[in-house]
Amino acid sequence: MSTASQNPPEASISAEHLVRRFGQFTAVNDVSFRVEKGEIFGFLGPNGSGKTTVIKMLTGLLPLSEGSAWVEGLDVRTNSEDVRLRIGYMSQNFSLYPDLTVMENLQFYGRVYGLDPARLKRRIEETIQLNGLGPYTDRLSARLSGGWKQRLALGCAMLHEPKLLFLDEPTAGIDPVARRQLWDLLFELSAHGITFFVTTHYMDEAERCSHVAYIYYGKLIADGTPNSLRELPDVQPDGTYRVEITTPEVTRALRFTRTLPGIRSATIFGQSIHALIDQHLELDDLRAQLSKNGIAVAEIRPLAPSLEDVFVELTYKHQALLEAARV
Ligand code: ADP
Ligand code: MG
């Protein structure tokens, strides 16, 4: 009997119950999600959580231990060669040839994809135009800044006109301006109909995605639009609200805040504390209690949950479930 099931229509990626084991260790544990065509899908999670492993499974580089996945209409278990021709993949260690120029790198990667000379010429021109590489075509890639290297790497990964691009931490190690510019480019390309699967550690980047998922040591613990995740009952339970407490004494304030009745959770974000609070504990009350204990408070204000808050809450909950399962 064939194990191939129906390809779900329209999805760019459909992953169902993905499992990947390395020996006894389960790196990806029953992960399911769907990425629609044209989305910018942000895939987040701490180091070692299985992001790269999922990408390798979806790009046909690593066999699935269990589960199934379709990418651009193809079953990755049986069609990994064709999958690789339809997608682009900029790996975490994507390497340009430092002693080749921008143009030479594009020509090299275009030949790797087997583009015939006419198509290669057309695609290089289009890619230079789209990615804004025009002023740099003759520059050695070793002499490009980090941001421009990433634009060139992205260009190399899309020469064969893939409809879906996997970018594994494309902005790691580049400066904030270059990060923003690379994201602007992703939006432009997305408007041309390309779907993106992007891993990142940066929460501000996650906020820009149309769809985000969070993987925590092999388990998918969040999946949705940024706004739908903010409204999850686990993130914003009935009868609670969230505040930001700005104080020069964050660590002391955190220790004290956590002891107060009515505080559900509290975490430090830079110079402030984000706390989830029962409705009956009022802001003025909270302020009074802090100042009674000698903690200087610059500001307390209500706050909508950020995606970082979302992931923190869901991580706590997931850890609590794991603890409960252990006893
Ligand atoms: P991430 O990309 O989220 O940082 P990875 O997918 O690279 O995480 O790794 C997930 C886990 O799987 C890690 O614990 C890593 O050590 C392990 N892992 C990845 N590849 C292999 C492999 N080929 N053999 C054994 N363990 C691996
Ligand atoms: Mg990785």
What features would you describe in this structure?
It contains eleven helices and 14 strands. It is α/β, with parallel strands linked by helices and 327 residues long. The chain folds into two domains: 11-224, P-loop containing nucleotide triphosphate hydrolases (Rossmann fold, 3-Layer(aba) Sandwich), CATH 3.40.50; 229-326, Alpha-Beta Plaits. A hairpin with a 2-residue loop joins strand 12 and strand 13 (272-278). It is globular, with a radius of gyration of 23 Å. Bound molecules: adenosine-5'-diphosphate and magnesium ion. Residues 22, 27, 45, 47-53 line the site of adenosine-5'-diphosphate. Adenosine-5'-diphosphate (ADP) binds at residues 22, 27, 45, 47-53.
Throw out a few tags for this protein.
327 residues, alpha/beta, Alpha-Beta Plaits, six-stranded mixed sheet, 14 strands, binds magnesium ion
Largest sheet: 6 strands, mixed
| SS class | alpha/beta
Order of strands in the sheet with the most strands? 6-7-8-3-9-10
Rg, Cα atoms, Å = 23 Å
Bound molecules: adenosine-5'-diphosphate, magnesium ion
Q: CATH homologous superfamily of the largest domain?
A: P-loop containing nucleotide triphosphate hydrolases
By DSSP, the count of extended strands is 14
Number of helices: 11
Stated plainly, the CATH topology of the largest domain is called: Rossmann fold
**Which shape, going by the Cα principal axes?**
globular
Q: Order of SSEs, N→C?
A: EEEHEEHEHHHEHEHEEHEHEEHEH
The first-to-last residue Cα distance is: 41 Å
Task: State the helical fraction.
Answer: 25-40%
What is the class of the largest domain in the CATH system? Alpha Beta
Residue windows where pLDDT falls under 50 for at least 5 positions: none
Instruction: Tally the structural domains.
Output: 2
CATH architecture field of the largest domain? 3-Layer(aba) Sandwich
Overall mean pLDDT stands at: 93
Strand content: 25-35%
